[in-house]
Design a protein that fits this description.
globular, 131 residues
Length: 131
């Protein structure tokens, strides 16, 4: 049975100490008061997507995400990239009737001007558990 609910996680990004990528923290709320331990995000079996949105206090602006189902051949198509919408949110589609884990790379820039792009470390999204 599929559900129409979509779980949303919120992310704060900041430039890493070496200046090469985005250090990310994940939260259950936009105000960034309810942290998620680690970088494994879980949604309930049957959900068709997971939303990832920018949390308050983020030093970097969330631009988009690339994702891939782990254990499958590495390919890049228009079906495994999602740009943020006008609200700073994006969706990662998930199959409603198959348990999978997807690796995600979030893409950020500095606020105000895109003079550098910063990729996140690789969080994972799984639909094999209830929240």
């Amino acid at each position: 049975m599929t559900t129409t609910a979509i779980t949303t996680y919120y992310v704060q990004g900041k430039i890493s100490a070496d200046g090469n990528y985005a250090d990310c923290s994940y939260f259950l709320d936009q105000a960034a008061k309810q942290p998620v331990e680690g970088s494994t995000l879980s949604i309930s079996y049957g959900e068709t997507a997971c939303a990832i949105a920018q949390a308050d206090g983020s030093e970097l602006v969330l631009l988009g995400a690339s994702f891939k189902t782990l254990g499958r051949p590495p390919v890049m198509t228009d079906s495994n990239f999602s740009a943020t919408d006008g609200t700073g949110s994006l969706q990662v589609p998930m199959p409603p009737s198959t348990v999978v884990t997807k690796g995600i790379v979030l893409l950020f820039s500095k606020a105000g001007s895109v003079d550098g792009l910063y990729a996140s470390s690789d969080p994972e999204l799984t639909n094999g558990s209830g929240l």
